[in-house]
Design a protein that fits this description.
heterodimer; A: Rossmann fold; nine-stranded antiparallel β-sheet; globular; B: about 300 residues; alpha+beta; CDC50/LEM3_fam (chain B); transmembrane helix (chain B)
């Protein structure tokens, strides 16, 4: 299968650059003509855009009739912003606010947000109850922690919102030139703009609001707009003003300009606009072509004039953005359930207590004269205690993630930023990654990588996959050799022969050499290529060596096509002799740079002449490698523009000798169809190379040329000119036919491969993520070919994959009948599914490529399920031409359909919807534009850091948080139940065994530090082991640490501990004396002793959980226990009316009693025994993967060699299940090689 | 005495000499179990004369009937002084919330000058005069008294230092005297001598330490003479306190004490149980380990090596 990427050659206007270029290039006539615009400037836009029809803008549209109806009632008085200060034409200022709160709403809304969380609400309930006189605990001890926890969370919210505010402030305070009066333009802040203002936007500036284009620096009112932030498409879009407003192209013109616009009301639809311009007593229909949208950028145009139509929150861009929902992690949501469970346990306990109390009161308590009971019936309430240390832990975790030096991008000086800290553990449970392409996986930069000229491929023959496969087989071989004992020599020799056969298949000695040198893409990406856009290494062509090649003619022609067939413009650079180029598509730039490197420097362009600085091989050799450099002028006769249907572009030039050439580049299939019989010499070889390049994910273009006889050209040119001047709908067809006439009988030169340069480390990262069992979907606004190329480049696709394509046939698309389209898509899905079911056993992975239009249909109600079922079963899914909204939609559907955790990653404003919709949104902060980052939960400087973020930090955080939450549950059950048991002994009166402040301190100080240490620092395995065994990540998606069985287990553990603690204490300490001098334990000493047992138990329990002890853990665990004693001593030293039950209790009463210490020891041992037995059984009979890996890592040190072998083998084994990614590709390659090899050995 | 004698004498005292002659001073531990002997005698029913047993409450509330009662206790084992005297109340909820809260620590320390005694409700004021000590706990002071006679001689009962020293020093004022105490219509428990400061009212101090459980002992005093086996101790007691209203039991306890406190079998049993089950578990695990031993760091346990694993 051959996939050819076709770049989009958009018409381009380079007025400004031409102007500068002309001045320095000393082309007098051009300079003269460009210096003064009015004298008739070079109309580049006209020159290149012959195909652009103006007729379309005049088509009367049915929608136009809607104006004035509801929904289309907006009236804008252009250049009269003051008229919009009063109703009914009062529209908002251009002020934008993305903050969640303002000063007034912060408190109520933030409080509401906080108490929407079950835990906090529970806390609030408890605090409210404490205000009632019945509460057993003092008010302070309940309210203080609540205020603390809620306060911290609210502070966090406030800080985050403050950042948003600053961002807004920055945007709002940008300035733009706005018309003041009498044609004077003054700087105005964005936020002060009003509807009706006339503004002048300069090159490379963002539009401050939605503008109606009036005129531009080009005479024909064209301007180029980059809409990356809106839809993610990287190519520029043309906007053009109405004919009638073209005259408004000077500042002075606006002194008396007045017009009225009637148009649609604000809406989020980016691609529609309906309106009318009433100007000079005439009404002109407006279309989206006149609308400049906020968040897009003016490109390649000096300036434009526009009038503000929608401002501030009315703009389409702002309407399109959704408010970021507050996200909650899966663990947190489950924790709600746990809190419900605990809460219901508590309610049950309270109910039992209340009923018991009231029953007792009715029957017995009347007799309890010592209580002097009044008549009113009191219902006591028992409080459990549950605190949220989690927030703090997550903030600390986020801090550690931010500080990770491994995720620091030195180039951009940026590091990872966890912007919302409450999703940390979700990072460990991601199952699906939805990724944007441009800016995320690729840098939007093209590099010339390889070429095949005259049937010979240059720029390295072997692919990285081959290299890695051969390396791997080497390693395999060694591993085999090792595992085979000395005695087994026969089989060993067999292995050896087998291996050499394999090596032979891999062929060329180059492979070995290269393997030895270690040049692979994986390492090559590390060293930055010296020339931007050119990453080509082949001594046969470099350094002018190409002149020694046999196929010199083809090579020269090839380079000429590269240097001439384009729409680019050279720009002077600081470096001597080297030029920089600007062209519409980055591929063209790459070609121009490449041709410059091959000494075919394109140095000037005028209206009809292109000048090349050529290196003349036919000329005399002055010195060794010093040939004559000559300037050659080529007359540009015609330019046959690229279009998506033609998929090719040609120029017709004549050289100084008057020879006319047609130089053509285009998609291989198109070019191959138009080859002359004598031009097919290299077709076969080239096709082979093409497929190789495509496999590597390169974008390929075929180059061909043809010599046109002067007579033929003349004849054709008249026809062509006629076609060009035709006005009417058939014009395009005629032009098509005309170009068809000349673009034939071509002679194939070869193909060039450019790489859409992946960001650093992307293939490795995807590989690791795939090994970790994550599915990666590529969602891109780009064309299908481009998307597939990138799919190959990042190993999401490979040649032996079964690809399903879902797309609409052209007929269905043009008919636009939903039902027919739906049926078509459904049919395709069913077919694919059938194939999938049949081939499932073969273990061949599947890939799904779906097109934006088809996508729209596939996501409709009834087709949705079938589509998602198919998509989920595919190893990789590539969606191309999807709109931002569709990105968000698919994210939501996948999330809902599969119920899996999704992560969306993107860099542009078009990814915002997806980022907000996904469970975790990740924004790439390296590129310009902060919208994605602002909407994201985590921001990364580069895609590759995702690997570490998920596999290391995600895994850790998931483990930590789940361990921590479970421990919370345990701790509070163990503690709270002792309170309940005591209730049983106090006739349910609500008296508490412990002092109020013990209880407050419990969660605040005495048991919190180890939990924080656990939550922040716990590691099951070290980070490099995490990366070596990405399969460990599966613990998260499979949720092994936070299953209900585990939760219940921990609750039971808590119940057992509480029972042991309470019963042991009361039976040992009561009723007889507990000290030598006959003193008996009263409520205060019994309370203190029991409490000591709890502190010891829960802190020792966490020591059992922790598997990673640093001094911080030691300090916090043992320090907490010590702290309890210190607290007890200090608190007890206060005067009796302050210290309550703790007065002198330690120093005088329990401290000197040996029984106290014995009880502590006994209780701690007994209450930890069940858990201890559990972990012993688990470890020895049913160990988890991290246990084994820990053991392998730490206990095989003695036998280093064995260690390495098993280590590496297991690493490989853990990867075997992957279907996508680089290693999988290598594996597949090995399998193929092996089968070939074995066949050969059989044949031998 | 000659010099040589003196030297010899000195020599005899050197450690070496003592060592060689095996006469080093020594202590000889006699490993006898430190028995804690405990006598528990329930007397609440016994001490109500036969005729009043139908309505014990009115008996106990009637001041005109003398509450004298005699018990004779037989000492089964030798009891070494000090022998602690406790009274034990069962089914008495001294830990009831309402009861526990009903006191004022500041008033106990500062006397009636301290006015904010709302926590003492409902025993706060009487005849518009503050009650010192206020609150239910003090009001319900236990007031049975015991005297012990052995062979016609009264045993000396030390009733000092039965309360914690910190309570006496810091919780109960040395200048605070009972005031307006038990003067109301409802009389709860014992009365206090208004001429003795609260810090010396040790019965009150002991009582004010509320117990944690509904069955509790409180220290009454110490007998500072040894009791031999088969001694008969006659207890004369005043059965004043009303436990009949709520069906509580009253017991008199005489107990010696070891370094671990009073007689308590639970600790020992728990230790034995935990110890033995630990040993059993250890053996079981050892056997299991020997039988099906998992090689350390065995990769076959890794999930991708298990058959059930599906990617």
């Amino acid at each position: 299968m051959t996939i050819v990427g076709i770049c989009s050659f958009f018409v381009e206007g380079q007025g400004s650059t031409a102007e500068e270029g002309a001045g320095t290039c000393e082309v007098v006539e051009i300079a003269a003509s460009t210096r003064r615009r009015k004298m008739g400037m070079v109309r580049w836009s006209k020159l290149y855009s012959f195909a652009c029809l103006r007729t379309s803008t005049y088509e009367p549209s049915a929608a136009q009739e809607l104006i004035g109806q509801p929904g289309f009632s907006r009236v804008v008085f252009c250049n009269e912003p003051h008229r919009h200060k009063r109703k009914p034409y009062k529209y908002p200022y251009n002020y934008i606010s993305t903050t969640k709160y303002n000063v007034l709403t912060f408190l109520p809304r933030a409080l509401f947000e906080q108490f929407r969380r079950v835990a906090n609400f529970y806390f609030l309930l408890a605090a409210v109850l404490s205000l009632a006189s019945l509460a057993p605990l003092s008010r302070a001890s309940l309210i203080v922690p609540l205020v603390f926890v809620v306060g911290i969370s609210m502070l966090k919210e406030a800080v985050e919102d403050w950042h948003r505010f600053l961002q807004d402030l920055n945007v709002n305070n940008r300035t733009v030139k706005a018309h003041a009066s009498n044609g004077e333009f003054v700087d105005k802040l964005w936020k002060e703009l009003r509807v009706g203002d006339v503004v002048k936007v300069n090159k490379d500036e963002y539009f401050p609001s939605d503008l109606l284009l009036l005129s531009s620096s080009y005479e024909d009112g064209v301007c180029y707009v980059e809409t990356m932030n809106l839809d993610g498409e990287t190519n520029l879009k043309i906007k053009r003003s109405l004919e009638d407003t073209l005259s408004l192209n000077e500042d002075e013109e606006f002194g008396r300009f007045k017009a009225t616009v009637r148009c649609e009301d604000p809406n989020p639809n980016l691609y529609t606009f309906v309106g009318n311009l009433e100007f000079e007593n005439e009404s002109h229909p407006l279309s989206p072509a006149q609308l400049l949208l906020r968040d897009s950028k003016l490109r390649n145009t000096d300036y434009v004039y526009g009038v503000v139509i929608f401002s501030g929150h009315d703009t389409k861009a702002v309407r399109n953005s959704t408010r970021s929902p507050s996200k909650r992690s899966r663990v947190e949501r489950k924790m709600d359930h746990i809190i419900y469970l605990l809460f219901s346990m508590l309610l049950l306990v309270s109910l039992v207590s209340s009923i018991g109390s009231s029953l007792l009161m009715k029957h017995d308590m009347d007799d309890w004269w010592y209580l002097q009971l009044p008549d009113d019936n009191k219902v006591p309430d028992l409080e459990g205690s549950d605190s949220k240390k989690e927030d703090l832990v997550k903030v600390l975790q986020a801090m550690l993630i931010n500080k990770d030096i491994e995720m620091y991008d030195e180039a951009a000086c940026k590091s990872v930023q966890a912007r919302t800290s409450n999703l940390n553990e979700e990072l460990g449970q991601v199952e699906m990654i939805l990724s944007d392409k441009t800016g995320t996986l690729t840098c939007n930069q093209m590099e010339f990588r390889k070429c095949s000229i005259a049937g010979i491929s240059y720029g390295g023959d072997t692919t990285e996959v081959d290299l890695a496969a051969s390396k791997r087989m080497n390693a395999d071989f060694e591993a085999c050799q090792f595992s085979i004992g000395e005695s087994d020599r026969i089989s060993q020799s067999f292995e050896v022969s087998n291996f050499s056969a394999e090596k032979a298949v891999l062929g060329c000695p180059e492979v070995q050499d290269n393997a030895n040198k270690g040049i692979s893409r994986l390492s090559r990406t590390e060293e930055e290529s010296v020339i931007k856009g050119f990453n080509f290494r082949d001594d046969r062509l470099m350094n002018k060596n190409w002149i020694h090649r046999s196929s010199l003619l083809e090579i020269t022609m090839f380079f000429r096509v590269m240097a001439l067939c384009h729409t680019g413009i050279p720009i002077e650079d600081d470096k001597i002799d080297k030029l920089r180029y600007e062209a519409e598509s980055p591929e063209e730039v790459a070609f121009l740079i490449a041709s410059q490197e091959f000494e075919f420097q394109f140095c000037r362009r005028t209206q009809s002449v292109m000048v090349l600085k050529e290196f003349d091989p036919s000329g005399k050799e002055v010195e060794r490698y010093h040939f004559k450099v000559i300037f050659r002028e080529y007359k540009l006769l015609n330019l046959l523009e690229f279009s998506s249907s033609r998929k090719r572009m040609s120029v017709i030039v004549s050289n100084e000798d008057g020879q006319i050439f047609l130089l053509c580049k285009g998609a291989d299939s198109i070019i191959f169809d138009r080859l002359a019989d004598n031009g097919r010499t290299y077709e076969q070889a080239t096709t082979l190379h093409l497929s190789n390049y495509a496999e590597d994910g390169f974008r390929t273009l075929a180059f061909a040329y043809r010599i046109v006889e002067a007579a033929e050209y003349e004849c054709w040119n008249t026809a062509f000119t006629k076609a060009k001047t035709t006005v009417g709908p058939e014009r395009e067809e005629l032009l098509e036919k005309a170009s068809e006439m000349i673009e034939k009988d071509l002679i194939l030169l070869g193909v060039a491969a450019v790489e859409d340069k992946l960001q650093k480390g992307v293939p490795e990262c995807i590989d690791k993520l795939a090994q970790a069992g994550l599915k990666i979907w590529l969602l891109t606004g780009d064309k299908r070919e481009t998307a597939i190329n990138i799919g190959f480049a990042c190993s999401l696709l490979r040649q032996d994959m079964k690809q399903f394509h879902l797309s609409l046939s052209r007929e269905a698309e043009s008919n636009n009948q939903v039902k027919a389209m739906k049926e078509e898509i459904l049919h395709q899905i069913e077919n694919s599914y059938k194939v999938m079911c049949e081939e499932r056993n073969k273990e061949a992975p599947f890939a799904l490529v779906i097109d934006g239009k088809a996508f729209e249909i596939a996501l409709r109600g009834d087709v949705k399920d079938e589509f998602l079922q198919l998509a989920v079963n595919c190893a990789s899914v590539i969606c191309c031409r999807v709109s931002p909204k569709q990105k968000a939609l698919i994210t939501r559907l996948v999330k809902e359909y599969t119920g899996k955790t999704t992560l969306a990653i993107g860099d542009g404003a078009n990814d915002v919807g997806m980022i907000q919709e996904a469970d975790i949104g990740v924004g790439i902060s390296g590129m310009e534009g902060m919208q994605a980052v602002m909407a994201s939960d985590f921001s990364l400087p580069q895609f590759r850091f995702l690997e570490r973020l998920l596999i290391v930090h995600g895994h850790w955080c998931y483990q930590r948080i789940s361990k921590m939450v479970l421990y919370f549950v345990y701790k509070n059950v163990a503690f709270g139940l002792t309170l309940f048991y005591f209730e049983l002994y106090t006739s349910f009166s609500g008296e508490v065994l412990y002092d109020d402040w013990y209880m407050t301190m419990f969660n605040v100080l005495l048991t919190s530090l180890p939990v924080i240490a656990l939550g922040v620092l716990e590691q099951d395995v070290s980070s490099d082991v995490c990366l070596q065994f990405p399969a460990l990540y599966q613990q998260g998606p499979r949720n092994v640490h936070f299953k209900w069985s585990r939760i219940i287990g921990w609750i039971l553990n808590g119940v057992v501990s509480s029972l042991v603690i309470f019963l042991a204490n009361i039976y040992i300490l009561s009723p007889s004396a507990y000290r030598q001098n006959g003193y008996v334990a009263d409520i205060s000493s019994l309370g203190a002793i029991t409490y000591t047992c709890i502190i010891w138990t829960v802190n020792c329990q966490i020591a059992l959980i922790t598997s990673h002890f640093t001094w911080i853990q030691h300090l916090s665990i043992w320090g907490s226990i010590l702290l309890w004693y210190i607290f007890l001593v200090l608190y007890g030293a206060l005067p009796p009316y302050l210290s309550g039950k703790a007065f002198h209790v330690f120093i005088e009463e329990i401290g000197p009693a040996p029984l106290y210490w014995m009880v502590t020891l006994l209780v701690v041992i007994v209450s930890l025994l069940p858990y201890f037995i559990h972990i012993v059984i688990q470890r020895s009979f049913n160990p988890m993967d991290d246990h084994i890996i820990q053991e392998m890592k730490y206990c095989f040190r003695k036998d280093d060699v064995t260690d390495n072998q098993t280590w590496i083998r297991e690493q490989r084994n853990s990867q075997r299940s992957t279907r996508i990614g680089f290693s999988a590709r290598v594996d597949a390659k090995i399998v193929i090689q092996r089968t070939v090899a074995s066949k050969e050995t059989i044949n031998l | 005495m000659t010099n040589t004698d003196r030297e010899r004498h000195r020599e005899r005292e050197t450690a070496f000499y003592l060592f060689t002659q095996q006469r080093l001073p020594a202590c000889k531990p006699v490993l006898t179990p430190a028995w804690v002997v405990e006598i528990v005698e329930r007397y609440d029913t016994e001490c109500v004369p036969e005729p009043f047993r139908i309505d014990k409450v009115s008996y106990v509330q009637d001041d005109s009937i003398p509450k004298n009662c005699s018990l004779s206790l037989k000492v089964r084992k030798y009891m070494k002084a000090p022998i602690y005297i406790y009274y034990q109340l069962d089914n008495y909820y001294q830990n009831h919330r309402r009861y526990v809260k009903s006191r004022s620590d500041r008033q106990l320390l500062h006397g009636w000058k301290y006015h904010a005694t709302s926590s003492c409700q409902p025993v706060e004021f009487n005849n518009n005069q503050p009650i010192v000590p206020c609150g239910l706990i003090a009001w319900s002071l236990f007031n049975d008294t015991f005297t012990f006679i052995r062979e016609r001689a009264e045993l000396k009962v030390n009733r000092k230092n039965i309360a914690w020293k910190s309570d006496r020093d810091h919780k109960f004022g040395k200048t605070v005297y009972p005031f307006n105490f038990q003067n109301g219509t409802l009389i709860g428990g014992g009365k206090l001598n208004p001429r003795i400061p609260l810090s010396d009212q040790e019965d009150l101090i002991v009582w004010m330490r509320t117990s944690a459980l509904p069955s509790f002992r409180k220290l009454y005093g110490r007998i500072e003479e040894d009791l031999d086996a088969d001694d008969v101790v006659v207890v004369h007691l005043m059965n004043n306190y009303n436990t009949y209203g709520f069906g509580g039991k009253k017991k008199l306890v005489l107990s010696t004490s070891s370094w671990l406190g009073g007689k308590n079998d639970f600790l020992g049993l728990a230790c034995v149980f935990v110890g033995s089950s630990s040993v059993i578990l250890a053996i079981v695990f050892m056997l299991l380990h020997l039988k099906s031993r998992r090689p350390y760091g065995d990769p076959s346990y890794l999930p991708w090596n298990r058959k059930s694993f599906s990617g």
